[in-house]
Protein 1
Amino acid sequence: MLVFTRRRQEAIRIGDRIEVRVLRVGRDGVRIGITAPPDVPVHREEIYEEIRQANRAAVAPQVDLSALAERLRQP
Amino acid sequence: MRTAALPVSADQPPSTDDVREGLARNAISFPDGIPGFEACRRFVLLTSDALAPLQRIESIEGPPAAFLGIDPRLVLETYRCRLSDTDLRALAADGDATLLWFAIISEVDGVLYANLRAPIVINPQRMIGRQVLPDDGLYPIRHALTTKA
């Protein structure tokens, strides 16, 4: 892993399209601003990971869905 | 609205060649894959009378993956989710495009849940799909559809 020390308002550039800037440093956290092109997805790691795990758990549920489908068809 | 993206019937298995041709013609491309299944870039939507209004979203490329999905508005009438410019661009959707929405269904200990937080959105005009991950997610990843038996 590449490690940098950055102060407030200092940034890191990744390639020519992505900038990561330290906006504020607090006691419990660091506020970071990311500038990236629209085709580069940027997510908080824990959210991405949560969705990832939910997706893996979702693959082909092994339960009878006809009852649920039936219920959903009711107005 | 839906018929555009409902190509293959799951009720009557057609011949292999028909399936292959049908799948290729009706493939929906997911340029970013789906979190956890990043290698799957092409999916098809399968519908059947028995499962309606649920639909299967099945990978036809890369590792096998099949999800069950439901329009989140059938789960929560008030469901609203704003797509970011990034999402709209990725889906090649202009303001007027009619998009298909699917909340992925999962099962934990016999209870079925719908993922309202990160729906799969498909632009049937362009056959492009994407799972959107809104940062300001107002809805849960696990919204219970059933109660424990």
Note: Residues 11-73 of chain A form one domain.
Protein 2
Amino acid sequence: MITYLVRRFFTSVVVLIGVSIFIFVLLHISYPSPARAVLGLQARPAQVNAWNKANGYDDPVIVQYLHYLNQLIHGNFGYSYVENQTVVALFKERIARSVYLSGISLVLAVIIALPLGIFQAVKRNSIGDNLATSAAFILYSMPSFFLGLILIQVFALTFPIFSFEASQSNSVWVVMGDWNAMTLPIATLTLIVVASFSRYMRSSSMDVLAQDYIKVARAKGLPERLVLWRHLVRNASLPMVTLIGLSLPALLAGNLIVEELFNYQGLGLLFYESLQKVDYPVMLAYTLLGAILVVVGNLVADIALTIADPRIRLA
Amino acid sequence: MATPPLPPVDAQRAVPLGPEGGDVGAVQSGWRLALREFMSNRLAVVGFAMIVFFVLFCFVGPLIYHTNQTDTNLIIANEPPSAAHLLGTDTDGFDELGRIMKGGQAALEIGFFAAFVAIVIGALWGAVSGLVGGIVDSTLMRVVDVFLSVPFLFVVLILAVKFGASVLSLSLVIGFFAWQVPARLVRGEVLTLRERDFVLAARTAGSSNWRLITKHLLPNALGVVIVNVTFQVADAILAVAYIGFLGFGLHFPNVDWGDMLSNGIEYLQDGYWWLIYPVGACIVLTVMALNFIGDALRDSMDVRLRRR
């Protein structure tokens, strides 16, 4: 098990280095040098060249990459000349709000999808199962902004229960308390995640229900409640651990759309604004952050699974 | 192992014709079986009919339902549905139904072309990786891991901003960043196929690696590829909708469905439902139809594979 974890860890490091190369190439293609942003549009080509030389932007690509990597390791994700701030400072202002929105949506999605999937598997092909499957299928095919739009129409305009704009407060504590403003964004993101989670949960529960140990548990006269609780839930939930790790890219994309739709001042909206202002350092730093999150998330999920499921003895 | 003695002739005749242990009937090819399984899936047929409908609607529709999609006409802006404009008009006075057809053309073109790009790259990548094996395989697969880790939508948005959005550029950009799953699937298939006798036979006959891949391995891995194509098209159409919704889609007077929806949002409070729900329904129905087909194809390919 230890060898597996060590190998898994080194694969992640290799992938992270690959990610940094990927982002660097993208940055190099789209934004080779900030000289124009520093010197202004009036700068003569000779000035630009001199600036590039002085700041290392005409070094061989590989040297530039190593410099970039060195900066990353020291926590420097770049500088936004549009905002005149370091990217890290920009992120720090907003990260708590995004973490809150994504985190609570993910937790709610798991809380809803787990029992829902199990219920669907146990009551297979009942009306409830068919309804839930159809709903999941529609949600799964629906762009998150359209779902958000429908929720706004129904719950903010037709029946004005909630606000159609997310909380604008700078303090994440105020945001957390503001249910009137936060319900619709959280509901949108949660429903999108539930749609994919419940489908997997249903099929993994059906796999478990067909296992011999479920038959044994029933045959020895265990009450159905205990069969489900002790044998089904615990085994069927295992794939969810991996699924949460794998769902991070979709969650980040959902975050971007939901924050834009509800005007929520998080990282997704920052990324959206950087697209509009053509601020490449911010765009690429956020993409890099997302990629790191995905790699680390998958690694953590695999480690958690190894601890939770002693059958995994891959070496 | 000793060969069992042949049964007497009479007993041989008594053996029922047909597949061993199966029902008696004509032996069908795997593909025909898959087709039968596909056709027996009601949702799949519905999905397929829906896609045919949307293709006709978007590409043949404008030939029947003539609308002006090039000149704005602010006098008739935001009109509700009427006999002259079946789904009303939008902010610029374009006929909404005609606009949906035009946006659908872009969505379908990008969807299919991007899927094609992704499948070609993915199939070749996976086939080379699986066939060559060793260090080449692990390097190529780590590259797949890297591409899987970087959030797809972000990269596509950045490149759409950098290179501008047209049907061609969006298809290429989406295709270039969506080939990882087909690569993994094809690699898995090739890993089992390359141990089979016909591959050995082809090698013995002097086939080059390239010939092995294109003539023997890819045609046999076609099943998993076909299943993936439909999901690829669905994902690409959704990606275009996202890009358009965020305002980085096709440029005026071209239009995509996401772009139309984001324009419609501004009038949500005015109750201009015809700018929002028809086009939203088109996105959902197209993607759903493709997902139906994909799910059914996966099931029917399972039938084909089970026969192997």
Note: Chain B touches chain A through 39 residues (CB under 8 Å).
